[in-house]
Design a protein that fits this description.
The protein is of the alpha/beta class. It has twelve helices and twelve strands.
Amino acid sequence: MAACCSLNFVHIHAASRSKSKFVVQCYSPRVQVNGGVKPIVVNGDPPTFVSAPERRIVGVGDLHGDLSQTRCALQMAGVLSLDGYQWTGGDTVLVQVGDILDRGEDEIAILSLLKSLSVQAKSEGGAVFQVNGNHETMNIQGDFRYVDPGAFDECANFVEYLEECKGNWDDAFLSWIYVSEMLKEERASGNKKWSPWNLVKRQKGVVARSALLNPGGALACELSRHPVVLKINDWIFCHGGLLPHHVQYGVERMNKEVSDWMRGLKRDGSEMPFIALKGYDSVVWSRLYSREPGPLGKNPHKISSIAKRTLEEIKANGMVVGHTPQINGVNSSMYDDRVWCIDVGMSSGVLNSSPEVLEIVDNKARVLKRDTDSFDELEVLDYI
């Protein structure tokens, strides 16, 4: 295992929880950007309402453990260098809408990369935000049905590396993107034959994953820093979809309850917040906006009216969701550009489709893409 390396850029340390309703952070560049635009202001802990004046916003869909496709998407968005490590987005705001976990082997590496980019972006007046999806909450609940075998190995290796870093989470987590790739190179050049040690290693991986992701575990606490609903300027970002009853319940209340559950702080034990995380109409599970119309009798006009009501109640102009792979790529065709569906199934563990991202400039959205892939609708349904 590689020796623990201490990075030269600024580390993010766990912010102390405030007793007030919101925690306000300001991201100010060290140099003036675009003639001196106003700083990004973040309200909430975890972040809930963000003011990012005059910023370009980029939305990226479900990544599911595929580091290579993640890098392709970020490079397409213009926020990642060709070497795959450096922020190139200036004062851009990047939002990833959940489901980094499951179906791929580089989950912690992707989380590490996004954290590293967040640190770098802040110094240039930009920002990186993540929204938790249903696969993050499933893993914290102990549901490992969709975990790639290589992801169990990554958990075991990361726990070992964390011990070498003497438990220094910031050092280990931020540098893991580099260390994990070195380990993969070593593994690729080593003996690939099966041995009884493989079973022991897999068991170690399951134990390590449980320790990291149980409520209160180190990685669960890292994920708890991210919301399930995020409003940036006039746009809502969430994994499944925001509905009127979610707004009435309170998005900041949902974010806080989910965060507390992930951190193991809920008074009633391990019970997860229902309205945000359970049921077909919860924030991380809803497919109301993203499922294609079909024999189930989906009414586009009725759903558009629900979207309109939701956005009016939260005072937003548009919504960006992931969760359901879109066979025709990023789209908003059914909802008059009010709701954008940006999960294209780019992970090799899903559809391995060409990455596409959503760009929002001056409150207008457009799709950035290179090529389009076509998939049979039944193939998409296999991953819903």
